[in-house]
Amino acid sequence: MLRRITDRAALRADVTASLVVFLVALPLCVGVAVASGVPAELGLVTGIVGGLVAGALPGSSLQVSGPAAGLTVLVYEAVQSYGLGALGVLVLAAGLLQLSMGALRLGRWFRAISVAVVQGMLAGIGLVLIAGQVYALADARAPGSGLAKLAGLPGLAGGVLGGDGALAVLLGAGTVAVLVLWPKWRSAARVLPAPLAAVGLATAVTGVLGLPVARVRVRGLLDVLRPPGADDMAGLLSFGAAATVVAFALIASAESLFSAAAVDRLHDGPRTDYDRELMAQGAGNTVCGALGALPMTAVIVRSSANVSAGARTKLARVLHGVWLLLFVAVLPGALGVIPVAALAGVLVHAGWKLVPVREFVRLWREHRAEAVVLAVTALAIVGVDMFAGVLIGLLLAVVKSAWEISHVQVETEDAGDGGGALRVRVSGNATFLRLPKLLDQLEALPRDRPVELSMAGLRHVDHACGVALAAWEEEHNTRAAAGGRGTGDAADSTAAADTAGSVSAPGSRAAGPS
44, 59, 45, 62: which is closest to 99 by C-alpha? Predict the structure, then answer.
C-alpha cells in the first residue's frame, strides 16, 4: 500500500514537473532555432527528440535535453557555410561519433577537460550570441563573423537612434527586463516560468498594439523535415565539414556531461553514468540528424527547472517531449504570432548567463593562469571561430599544466678537496619548457672542474632534456679537462659568483627550482 501511494506521488510530481519543463523549453527551442538561422519548427523537433529518445534512455535520470544556446553560433556558421540541407548529415555524423565514444567508454574522460576551457567556450559563445541577437532585437540582419558583429554595433546603434527598429528594440529590452524581474515575484514564477511569461507578454503587447515588428515564420513541421541524402553524405569528405562534425560532437558531449555533473549536485537520486549518458546524447543526435533537425545537448536551464519542480524519475523529461509534440500537432500556427525581438531578448539573457563574470573574477584572484586560459579561449572564439577557439584553449591549458608540473632542482656536492669533480644531481620533472633555465643553472657551475651528472632523481625527462643534459655534461667535462681554456680567470670568478646560490663547498646545497 505504501509503495502504491509513493508511486502515485512520484507520478503526480513527474507530470507536474514535465509541464513546467515544457513551458520553459517551448520559447527556448523556438529562439535557438531562429538564432541558428533555421526554421523555428526544427528547434521543436530537437526538443521532442530530446524528450522521447534521449529522455527514455539510461544515463542521467533528471537531466533534460534539447537545442541549446551553446551550439547556436556553431550551427549558424555551419548553415551559412554548407546550407540547411547539409545540417542533418552533420548532426547525424556527430551523433554516430558520440555513440562510438560512449561505446568506447570515453564519457568519463570528458571530466578531464579543463573547466577553464569549458567556461571560456561558453563565455565566447555567450558573447557572440549576444552580439548576434542584438541585431535581431532591432529586426536587422547580423554580419557573419564574431568580429564583424562587434564592429557593426555602432552603426546598428545609430540606425536605432534614427528610428529604424526602435520599436523592436523596446520590445526586446522589455523581454529582458521581464526575464530578470519575473523570478523575484516568486508566487508567479512558481506558476509560470520566466521565459514563457516574457515571450507571452511581448506577444500580447505586439498583438494588442499591432506593432510593426518581424514575427516568427511558420512553414509547417512536415515541410521543414529534410532527411539527409546521398549528396549530403558526400559533403562530409571535405575537411571543413569533418571539423564541424568533430566540433559538434565534442562540444555537445562536454556541455552535456558538465551539465550532468551540475544536475547531480541538485538532487539526491541516482548519479549519472557518463558513458551511458554520452550514448543517450549520441542516439538523440543521430535521430535529430536523420530528421534534418538541430543538434541537441543536455541543457542546464531545463534540467534545473525539472529538479526544482520536483521531478522524481525520467518520466518527467519524456513527458515534456510529449507536450512539445502535442503543441506542434495541435497549435502549429501559434508560433507565427511570436515577435522575433522577444526571442532575441530571451537569447540575449541566455547568452549573458553563459558569461561567467563572477567565476572569472574569482579565478583571477586565486588561479590567475586559469583565468588567462578562460579569457584567451573566449576571445579566440569571438575573433576566429568556435572550433579554433576551443583548440587554442585546450592547447593553452596543456601548456599551462606542463609548465606548472615541470619543476627541476639542481643540487651540487663537493668532495671537499677543492679540485675534484663536482657531483651534480638533477631532480624533478624535466621538460623542454624548463630547459633554458636549467641549462643556465648548469652553465653557471665552475668551468674548470669536471662534473658527475646524475639524473636518477628525475621523475620524468623528455627527449629534448635528456639529449641536452648529456651533451652539456660531455662538453663541460671536455672543457674542464682542457683546463677551461677560452674562459679566463675573470669568467671563472664571475661564474663562481653567479652560482653562489647553487654550489657550496664543501658539502651540498640545492639550487632553486627552475
Answer: 59
Residue 475's alpha-carbon distances to 393, 428, 431, in angstroms, are 40, 23, 21
Q: How many residues does the chain have?
A: 514
Q: Which residues contact 390 (CB under 8 A, 6 or more apart)?
A: 117, 121, 247, 250, 251, 377, 381
Neighbouring residues of 240: CB distance < 8 A, sequence distance ≥ 6: 81, 82
Q: What is the pLDDT of residues 466-506, one digit of tens each?
A: 888 889 988 988 888 887 554 444 344 333 333 333 333 33
Q: Identify whether the C-beta of residue 241 lies closer than 8 Å to the C-beta of residue 86.
A: yes
Q: Which residues contact 139 (CB under 8 A, 6 or more apart)?
A: 165, 168, 213, 214, 340, 341
Q: 365-369: list long-range contacts, CB under 8 Å, 24+ apart.
A: 369/400, 369/404
Cell, residue 454: 646524475
Task: Please state, rounded to an integer, the average pLDDT across all residues of the chain.
Answer: 82
pLDDT in tens, 219-271: 777 777 888 877 777 777 788 888 899 989 988 888 888 778 778 877 777 88
As a whole number of angstroms, the distance between CA 313 and CA 320 comes to 12
If you write DSSP's letter for every residue of 404-437 in order, what string do you get? Answer: HH--EEEEEEE-SSSSSPEEEEEEEEE-TTTHHH
- Dihedral of CA atoms 87, 93, 94, 95 in degrees, nearest 10, equals 110
pTM, rounded to two decimals: 0.69
Mean pLDDT across 195-215 = 88
